[in-house]
Design brief:
The complex is a heterodimer of chains A (about 725) and B (about 675). Chain A has 26 helices and 12 strands. With about 725 residues, chain A is α/β, with parallel strands linked by helices. Chain A folds into 3 domains: about 55-325 and about 385-440, Zn peptidases (Aminopeptidase); about 330-385, no CATH class; about 510-710, no CATH class. In chain A, strands 6-2-3-5-4-7-10-8-9 form a 9-stranded mixed β-sheet. In chain A, strands 1-12-11 form a 3-stranded antiparallel β-sheet. Chain A starts with a helix and ends with a helix. By secondary structure, chain B is of the alpha+beta class. Chain B is about 30% helix and about 30% strand. Chain B contains 18 helices and 28 strands. In chain B, the strands form 6 sheets. Chain B has an 11-stranded mixed β-sheet with strand order 5-6-4-3-7-8-2-1-10-13-12. In chain B, strands 15-16-22-18-19 form a 5-stranded antiparallel β-sheet. A 5-stranded antiparallel β-sheet of chain B has the order 20-21-17-24-25. In chain B, a hairpin with a 2-residue loop joins strand 18 (about 430-440) and strand 19. Chain B starts with a helix and ends with a helix. The chains are: A alpha/beta (about 725), B alpha+beta (about 675). The interface of A and B includes residues 16, 395 and 442 of A. Chain A: It comes from Dillenia turbinata. Chain A: One of its GO terms (cellular component) is GPI-anchor transamidase complex.
Chain lengths: ~725, ~675
């Protein structure tokens, strides 16, 4: 005893701390998990108010110059577009021509950008790379072309190194009043900026033809802007389609109008991009509202300063109500309301103790903040951009979507002009502010979650919850491993008196390598999971149709391949001997380590995914224990453990999680079997890393936990 | 110029009286100053005004070192740095080659890249050129109040072999694309003029109006034959030009292509009150473009106006009208075209001092034309995204002129269009020259087929920029051509980042020249030298990886924290006596009944220290009582401590003085015996 004591005394404090934590792993993991969930719930309280970090932006320092003249011209464009859309069913190319004419009249450089609808193909080998433009589908029908109209204003005294992009998407096949007025806003600013002398950056106005979705035209324009093809590939494809009516019309337009450039017009490096969208929501009618969408692919966000200036100018200059997306269903949540009340109470108590402690917030604000935060976290975790601005982020351009909805009807002229004036002034002020910028956006945060348009949680705060969640994983792994080893050694000490036990273990030095077997089975599962991740690629190539059947095929293939691998490489259960009762503990320890590594890697790629994933995986991993053991024990504690094990494993099964979340958010009636497959398809179509995470971290971890649950000992 | 005004005048009169007959025979030997202003309406409702001042100094050998007109600073500069030719330009804005033309002498010579461009040819041995260049940049920097001295560093300038100008070895070229141009650069430039901006054409230069324009380029071109051995010595010629593109009439009219009428006073806000008396000639020209003239002539033909009326109506016709009758009308011929541009000449000498000279142009009907363009229109842009790699693309596209020219030549099989490209790239953009690809009409070409001559000097890290000179021979009937070359982005040392590093880094403009095409200068004389057609491409902005510049601060903070922790624990270890502490702890534990909190703490502490807990177990029932007692004790001590501040001392005999701010104990009240006993107690 004294010998151990002296060893302990000689150890350094950090080692002693480690040993202490490992020996109390149960308490530590419980405390950490509870603290993590508490930290997550407290995030809205810890949110800071936003502030404009870059001084050069100076939002609102200049008076907006947009006058009635530009707005009435813009209104004329809106009327013309509306008239065109009434005239013919498919007014696509005519609208483009109209916009081009209006642009050219302002003295801008105008060109058409023709693009093809691109089917998003899952390409497992080029996952993080952008899709290869060389992949050309030959059998494309000629009707699948869209035409963007691009206008460029050169800054009179600028050097043309940088540009600001304005995007107004419109659906050329059926344009409505709201989209027409978004074009109106674009035009009013464009006509103002073509006259001003203060511009330092060029202005690009992209009237994006969104007949194939809002994202595709912007993405393909950006691709042609950044990686043009010089060899005649585009020509070959265009040559096939000479019969196409639209294209001929386009050619006519190109030939007839000398002001329209036949080549792709370019400006310099993009400094920022604004997507302006008008949405007519008739029901909420008291104020003009502005919704900001910022999430790009894989949880990337634009610089917070861009959101700040938009929010500042919208609220303080134009008097718009600014919103960001939130989960409406969470607003009625009883639990959140209860937490909010507690927080408010705590805040009051703190205030009564010391008036300087500003802690706590009203219940309504808390619940709203949490709903916004959850939506922000969810959208980032999904890794699918929430609008056309996502295409810009792939080229390191900060971009957001401004969705403006008017309070009144856009049909009446007075209200429309008032609305155009407001929207135009907002965008003008933002352009002015960005124009002031000497450097690119770099001052403010890139990693943040929004809890309201004017409040954010920075990475330094929201990573606490994640760190607390994954902290117990290595500790538990170490404690399980050391426990198993100790029991083993004590067993072998006991067994040394018994001759058959020693015969069972011929080589005691191999004892410390016992985890190798567990590691092998973990590796087998991970190998299987990476195979399974690639399977949907082949399934999607099969002609047979519905998503439900594809899902079933995928699931059955998964199970089949798992058993196949088990028979070839051996299952975790194949190596069990009676002398090693703690086999499952070693397996669990390795599983937990693998989950830890996976989560850490994912947190680098997409933090939000890792955070939500950790919420699901960590409790499941920590609590996993063979059911057989629990059932043998038959005590209350064991039963509870078994029950919670079963529920956690059920919840964490990816399809089950998806259906539960979907049912929770949208209501249970919208759920159908094929939904999960469709969801997976969108994930891989958008090149979301979340798909990889589900396939290569979450799924193997879940299967391993299931293995542990079903472990014979 | 320190002479009083009157003496100067007298001297001037004297020189006029006596020297003119003598110097008449020796024109070459006299100092000369001429001033000219060219005005030209541009197709996009703007007006180009081009000021041209020329000073000429006779060779030193025959004339000596002292000058009346020629600026001393420039003369000394030429002599000190042995300059054969030099050009310095300050430019703001971009020349629009599409709309303002690319095939006239002004666009070839006076359209410059944004910022500062400097090139110089030295008449010194090749190994001394760099040293001379460095000194020259510093001198110019002082002379023109600009940061030209940044061109001193060998990473910012290059020595083109043949792609830029044909001076091998002694030519140096550098640009500063980010230099801001303002009046502080204009003032020293004006100081070189004999009349400054007090009289003559330069009096028009109203700062707010010339800096309000769309393009502003101020240049200084120096040609000296002082050091040429064996050639005819023609002295030093200093040409100062200022090219401005202004928009007359701020408000946009409803009709997009209706040319606005303008006059000198409306675009400059000033008028010419007379010539600079020191100038030999002082002329104003108004040029109507070739296309415009042919358009006009077509219209005249339609109206069937006979020819003798036409010449009369050249300055006042149904389409436009000049406010004054020109003194001379020239039709400057240009290469193979049926029509020529018209040049109206006005002599300022003729206008009297009482009446100011104000030329105006009034358009009477709307009118569309286009400027002559260079054979190929060049644009340059960056490709790719991300912080690792990218490529530079130069795209050349045919223009109407080329199409027109080539239609004539298309019969010849061997027709080739020669294009020279000169491109300088800073070292941190590491260009892989082997990845050069050339596409002609969207088809990739073998380099040997299209490249006639090529000179590449790769960049050397932190020493010299990369340089690429290409002579392309392209087929005449081409529609478009493109060149791409890949690069990777380098890393800079932290002190090599410029201010505002997050903006990105500039790649200077490439120079595209067409050596087979020449433009002719219309002034000062018709027999002036022809210059090749030249155009500059855009400046590019490359975003490089930039460190977080607040990092040093963070590093300092964390280092200080680590130091504090280290020294704190070191001192702790050094002054600690472990055995003694343990003994005291044991005693305490033996003597004291402790509360459950302290037991827990000591347990935890012992765990952390790796020793079994030594504190005796105390009954749990008494613990709450004990802690209550402890709390009471603490409160008591605290209140006593607060009270002690004043009350206790007052009790002891202190008195409040000075508005109750101080406590004072009168010396006679001090009970020494009590103090001594208290001291011994303590």
């Amino acid at each position: 005893m004294s010998g151990i004591e002296s060893i302990n005394a000689r150890r350094r404090p950090i080692v002693r701390l480690g040993v202490f934590l490992i020996s109390h792993s149960l308490i530590v993991s419980v405390i950490c998990c509870i603290a993590a969930i508490l930290a997550l719930l407290l995030l809205p309280v810890l949110a800071k108010s936003t502030y404009v970090s870059e001084n050069a932006l100076m939002p609102g320092s200049a008076n907006t110059m947009l006058s009635n003249q530009e707005v009435s011209e813009a209104d004329r464009l809106v009327k013309d577009v509306n008239a065109l859309s009434l005239e013919s069913v498919d007014a696509g190319i005519n609208i483009a021509k109209l916009i081009a004419r209006y642009m050219a009249d302002l003295g801008a450089e105008v060109c058409y950008h023709k693009f093809r609808r691109q089917q998003n193909q899952f390409n497992p080998l080029h996952f993080f790379l952008s899709t290869d433009p060389v992949v050309v589908q030959r059998n494309i029908s000629c009707s699948s072309f869209g035409v963007n109209t691009v206008g460029v204003i050169r800054a009179p005294r600028g050097d043309g190194k940088e540009a600001i992009v304005l995007v107004t998407p419109y659906n050329s096949s059926r344009i409505d009043a709201a989209e027409a007025s978004s074009l109106g806003i674009g035009y009013s600013i464009f006509s103002l900026l073509s006259q001003v002398t203060w511009l330092a950056k060029d202005i690009i106005w992209l009237a994006a033809d969104s007949r194939f979705g809002v994202y595709a035209p912007v993405a393909s324009w950006l691709k042609d802007y950044h990686t043009p093809l010089f060899s005649g590939l585009g020509q070959v494809n265009a040559g096939v389609c000479h019969e196409s009516n639209d294209l001929l019309k386009l050619k006519d337009a190109m030939v007839s109008d000398t002001n329209i450039s036949k080549i792709f017009t370019r400006a310099g490096t993009m400094a920022a991009a604004l997507v302006v969208k008008v949405v007519d929501r008739h029901n909420e009618a008291d104020e003009d509202t502005l919704s900001i969408f910022a999430e790009a692919s894989n949880g990337q966000m634009p610089n917070l300063d861009l959101i700040n200036i938009v929010n500042y100018l919208a609220v303080h200059r134009q008097g718009l109500r600014v919103k960001v997306e939130k989960f409406w269903s969470l607003l009625d949540s009883k639990f959140l309301n209860f937490v909010g009340e507690t927080v408010e109470l705590l805040g009051k108590v703190a205030k009564s103790l010391n008036p300087n402690w500003r802690f706590g917030m009203p219940v309504a604000e808390y619940v709203e903040g949490t709903a916004t935060l959850a939506s922000s976290l969810f959208n980032q975790a999904l890794g699918v951009p929430t609008g056309p601005h996502g295409a810009f982020r792939d080229y390191q351009v900060d971009a957001i979507t401004l969705e403006i909805s008017p309070k009144g009807s856009l049909k009446s002229m007075g209200q429309r002009i008032d609305f155009l004036m407001r929207g135009g002034r907002l965008v003008e002020a933002v352009v002015w502010s960005v124009n002031n910028l000497l450097e690119k956006f770099h001052q403010s945060f890139f990693l943040y979650l929004l809890t309201s348009p004017s409040k954010f949680v920075s990475v330094g705060i929201y990573m606490i919850a994640f760190a607390l969640l994954i902290a117990p994983l290595p500790i538990v792994a170490a404690s399980l491993c050391s426990d198993a080893n100790r029991r083993d050694s004590s067993l072998s000490k006991e067994g040394s008196s018994q001759p058959h036990a020693s015969a069972d273990e011929p080589n005691p030095t191999l004892k410390s390598w016992r985890w190798l077997h567990a590691a092998k089975s973990v590796f087998v599962i991970h190998f299987w999971s990476s195979l399974v991740t690639l399977l949907p690629h082949f399934i999607s190539k099969m002609p047979s149709g519905t998503s439900a059947s594809s899902l079933l095929i995928w699931l059955s293939l998964c199970i089949l391949s798992l058993f196949l691998l088990y028979t070839i490489l051996g299952s975790p259960f194949s190596h069990i001997t009676t002398s090693r009762p703690q086999e499952w503990a070693i397996l669990k320890s390795v599983t937990v380590s693998a989950a830890f590594i996976g989560l850490c890697l994912m947190s680098v790629i997409n933090f939000a995914t890792a955070e939500i994933g950790a919420l699901l995986i960590v409790p499941m991993c920590l609590i996993a224990c063979p059911l057989k053991l629990d059932l043998q024990d038959w005590s209350f504690r064991a039963l509870i453990r078994a029950a919670s094990n079963l529920t956690l494993v059920l919840i964490a099964f990816p399809p089950a999680t998806f259906y539960l979340l979907k049912g929770g958010i949208e209501g249970s009636d919208s759920v159908s079997v094929g939904n999960f497959w469709n969801w997976l398809e969108t994930l891989w179509a958008w090149n979301s890393a979340t798909y990889l995470y589900i396939g290569m971290v979450h799924l193997p971890c879940w299967v391993l936990c299931l293995n542990i649950l079903l472990h014979p000992r | 110029m320190l002479l009083p005004r009157q003496t100067r005048l007298v001297l001037f009169l004297l020189s006029n009286l006596f020297f003119i007959p003598i110097t008449f025979s020796l024109v070459e030997e006299q100092e000369q100053f001429t001033e000219e202003l060219l005005l030209k309406p541009l197709p996009d409702r703007k007006v180009l005004s081009h000021f041209h001042f020329q000073s000429r100094a006779p060779p030193t050998a025959s004339y000596g070192h002292h000058h009346r007109l020629f600026p001393k600073a420039i003369y000394q500069l030429v002599h000190k740095y042995r300059i054969r030719e030099m050009e310095l330009s300050f430019t703001q804005g971009r020349w629009n080659y599409e709309r303002w033309g690319g095939f006239d002498p002004i666009s070839s010579n006076n359209a410059k890249p944004p910022g500062v461009e400097l090139w110089a040819v030295f008449d010194v041995p090749e190994h001394q050129v760099d040293a001379y260049w460095k000194n020259l940049t510093h001198t110019l920097s002082g002379l023109f109040c600009a940061s030209i001295n940044f061109l001193e560093s060998s990473t910012t300038y290059a020595a083109p072999e043949w792609g830029f100008q044909p001076f091998t070895g002694s030519l140096r070229y550098g640009t500063l694309p980010r230099e801001a141009v303002c009046t502080e650069n204009l003032t020293p430039w004006l100081k070189l003029l004999p009349c400054r901006d007090k009289a003559g054409l330069s009096a028009l230069l109203d700062r707010p109006s010339i800096y309000k324009g769309f393009y502003h380029s101020q240049q200084l071109h120096l040609i000296s034959a002082e050091f040429k051995s064996g050639e005819l010595d023609s002295g030093i010629i200093l040409e100062q030009t200022l090219t401005v593109v202004l928009q007359p009439g701020a408000k946009r009219t409803g009709l997009a292509y209706f040319q606005p009428s303008w006059s000198m006073s409306s675009i400059f806000g000033r008028q010419i009150t007379g010539k600079c008396v020191l100038a030999k000639s002082s002329n104003v020209f108004l040029q109507i473009d070739r296309d415009a003239v042919s358009e006009l002539k077509d219209m005249w033909k339609e109206m069937s106006v006979n020819s003798d009326k036409m010449s009369k109506s050249l300055w006042s016709n149904p389409y436009f009208e000049l406010s004054r009758a020109p003194d001379r009308i020239k039709e400057a011929s240009s290469i193979n075209s049926d029509s020529a541009s018209i040049l109206y000449e006005f002599f300022i000498q003729k206008c009297s001092k009482s009446e100011s000279f104000d030329l105006g142009l009034t358009w009477k009907s709307s009118f569309v034309w286009s400027c002559p363009k260079a054979p190929l229109h060049a644009t340059r842009f960056l490709m790719g995204s991300g912080n690792e790699r990218g490529s530079i693309a130069i795209s050349l596209r045919t223009t109407e002129l080329n199409r027109r020219l080539m239609d004539a030549d298309i019969s010849e099989e061997t027709c080739k269009l020669r294009v020279d490209i000169f491109q300088m790239v800073p070292w941190y953009v590491k260009v892989y020259y082997h990845t050069l690809l050339v596409f002609v009409d969207e088809k990739p070409q073998a380099l040997t087929d299209v490249i006639e001559r090529m000179h590449v000097s790769p960049s050397e890290d932190k020493v010299s920029p990369g340089l690429m000179e290409l002579a392309l021979k392209l087929p005449c009937g081409l529609n478009s051509a493109a060149l791409t070359v890949e690069f990777s982005k380098g890393f800079l040392h932290i002190d090599e980042y410029p201010p505002d590093a997050n903006q990105g880094f500039d790649i200077p403009s490439a120079v595209i020249s067409f050596p087979r095409f020449n433009t002719r200068l219309h002034f000062p004389k018709d027999d002036s030298e022809r210059s090749p057609v030249l155009s500059y491409t855009e400046v590019l902005l490359v975003p490089l990886t930039t460190p977080d510049f607040s990092m040093p601060y963070n590093v300092i903070t964390i280092t200080c924290t680590v130091f504090a922790l280290y020294f704190g624990s070191l001192l702790n270890v050094l002054r600690r006596r472990v055995g003694e502490e343990e003994r005291i702890l044991k005693e305490k534990a033996a003597n004291k009944k402790t509360g459950w909190i302290s037991i827990l703490l000591s347990k935890l502490f012992a765990k952390l220290r790796g020793r079994p807990s030594e504190s005796p177990k105390s009954p749990a029932s008494s613990s709450s009582l004990v802690s209550l007692k402890l709390l009471l004790k603490v409160v008591l001590v605290a209140s006593v401590a607060v009270g002690w501040q004043i009350e206790f001392l007052e009790l002891c005999g202190f008195e409040r003085i000075d508005g109750e701010k101080f406590l004072d104990l009168p010396i006679e009240k001090v009970d020494m015996a009590a103090l001594v006993s208290a001291g011994s107690e303590l």
